[in-house]
Design brief:
Chain B: Keywords: Phosphoprotein. By secondary structure, chain A is of the alpha/beta class. Chain A has 10 helices and 10 strands. In chain A, helix 2 packs parallel to helix 3. Classes of the chains: A alpha/beta, B alpha/beta.
């Protein structure tokens, strides 16, 4: 028979030497290089798994050891095994419990009384391979879960029919001040200020009709503290445990809006100041300029010194006039920019 | 026909100055000064003297109404508005643009009104 040339490192935690020899013999039939290490007690197994001389490909575990047995043994060994598959060795009398142990994370079980070289070999290859796949799936699941859980933006999933929260990420918990349990007892309508929760069903209508659509909205939300914030929400329909669910990403734009409001108010003030310059301040200035002109023609008999002083008044008023015109020109360009934006 | 110039400006000093300057340039011109739009409108609607050709020298920003309101009032309620020459102390260019949309407006001057402006205004009203 063709033998597996791959080298296997296998830990056998088994206090019955006869059983160990049997395993050793059977393995030799299918595997060319099977490096077995036998350990008889849980304590010894713990030592070796905590400071492994090399990584094991697989662990065989007898479910009754002199110092520990049953569920506690399984849990401890699985914890120590990490991503190494653990196969339980058992007799008929413990079969029910052994089957149950699969749910604890044991990869497979072998009945000692029915052991054959073929079954043993198949179990090893199958368990190693399957463990690789499940690890991959778990890592991938964790990655996607992290995308949601570790997102710096608050996110949640809610039931589109009941509006109840189904899942909330840490950022949402931090931002809104509700614990996960509190969130799960609320519906999305509870986050809206009084009188602003109507129309939610209508907002969701389009999203439910077109599963691929993404909808952005700006709402006001209440934090647990009662503080009102302005948020931009992005909705996307999401299949979630067979429910009609919506994934929501929340972007708090309260500060941004406040900044814009401040800037707009300042702009308004600047425009008013410019308006005062070009209309209000200029009125007495125009009067002054007119008076200087009139005086010029009426007082031709002034002496040279007085004429010079009169000239200074005219020049000063003229300068002031230029300044006001400049301010007015600048404010007109601002107005122009404003209109272009609209 | 004699020409009457109706001066409307809420700045009393300016009103005195304008009267003085016009009378220096043309002592025969009949001048009727008013401090508000309302007074001027009341005078114009009560006065049916057709012997005089009337012109209005009108400040854009009167305290009681704008020149635009003044002209609209004339066209909506009263008869045809006499020719209007607008004067303003504002340097905002939007006013000059807006003035183009008002048929009665025949001239637009920024204050201060100089003697050169007075000559130009008199030319507009058909004197000199």
């Amino acid at each position: 028979m063709h033998k597996d040339k791959k080298a296997y490192h296998i830990l056998v935690i088994e206090d019955n030497f006869g059983d160990f020899v049997l395993i050793e013999e059977y393995l030799a039939e299918n595997i060319l290089e099977a490096n077995l290490k036998q350990i008889e007690t849980f304590q010894a197994a713990r030592k070796i798994l905590q400071n492994p001389p090399g990584k094991f490909d697989l662990i065989f575990l007898d479910l009754t050891l002199p110092d520990l047995s049953g569920e506690k043994l399984i849990v401890e060994i699985l914890e120590l095994a990490g991503d190494t598959p653990v196969v339980a060795l058992t007799g008929f009398s413990d079969l029910d419990f052994t089957i149950k142990s699969l749910s604890l994370g044991v990869s497979d079980y072998l009945l000692k009384d029915e052991l054959t070289p073929t079954i043993l070999y198949k179990t090893i290859v199958y368990s190693i391979q399957r463990k690789k796949f499940t690890d991959q799936i778990q890592r991938s699941e964790k990655r996607y879960s992290d995308l949601f859980q570790l997102s710096p933006l608050p996110m949640w999933v809610f039931d589109a029919d009941t509006l109840k929260f189904l899942s909330i990420n840490q950022a949402a918990i931090n931002h809104y001040g509700y614990s996960e349990e509190e969130f799960l007892a609320l519906s999305i309508a509870d986050l809206r200020p009084k009188g602003e929760s109507h129309g939610i069903a209508k907002e969701l209508e389009n999203l439910l009709l077109d599963p691929s659509s993404v909808q952005k909205n700006v709402f006001r939300h209440l934090k647990k503290s009662g503080e009102t914030i302005t948020v931009e929400t992005t909705y996307k329909r999401l299949p979630f445990n067979e429910r009609n669910a919506m994934l929501v990403i929340i972007n708090d734009i309260t500060d941004r809006n406040r900044h814009i409001e401040t800037i707009e108010k300042q702009n308004q003030n600047l425009m008013e100041i410019a308006w005062i310059q070009s209309h209000v301040v200029r009125a007495p200035l125009a009067r002054l300029l007119g008076l200087v002109n009139l005086l010029d023609t009426e007082t031709s008999d002034l002496n040279a010194e007085s004429k010079k002083l009169m000239g200074y008044i005219r020049d000063s008023a003229g300068e002031l006039d230029e300044i006001i015109r400049e301010i007015s020109r600048k404010s007109e360009t601002i107005e122009h920019l404003d209109k272009n934006e609209d | 026909m004699k020409t009457e110039l109706i001066l409307v400006d809420d700045d009393p000093v300016l009103l005195v100055m304008l009267q003085k300057m016009f009378s220096i340039v043309d002592p025969n011109l009949q001048l009727s000064p008013f401090h508000s739009g309302k007074e001027a409108l009341a005078y114009l609607s009560g006065n049916h003297d057709t012997a005089h050709q009337k012109f209005i020298l009108l400040d854009i920003n009167l305290r009681d109404m704008s020149a635009w309101q003044f002209m609209n009032e004339f066209e909506n309620v009263r008869k045809t508005c006499p020719s209007v020459i607008l004067i303003t102390s504002s340097v905002a260019s939007a006013n000059a643009e807006k003035a183009k949309n008002y048929a009665p407006v025949v001239g637009f001057f920024e204050k201060p009104i100089t003697f050169q402006n007075i000559e130009q205004i008199l030319k507009l009203v058909g004197k000199h």
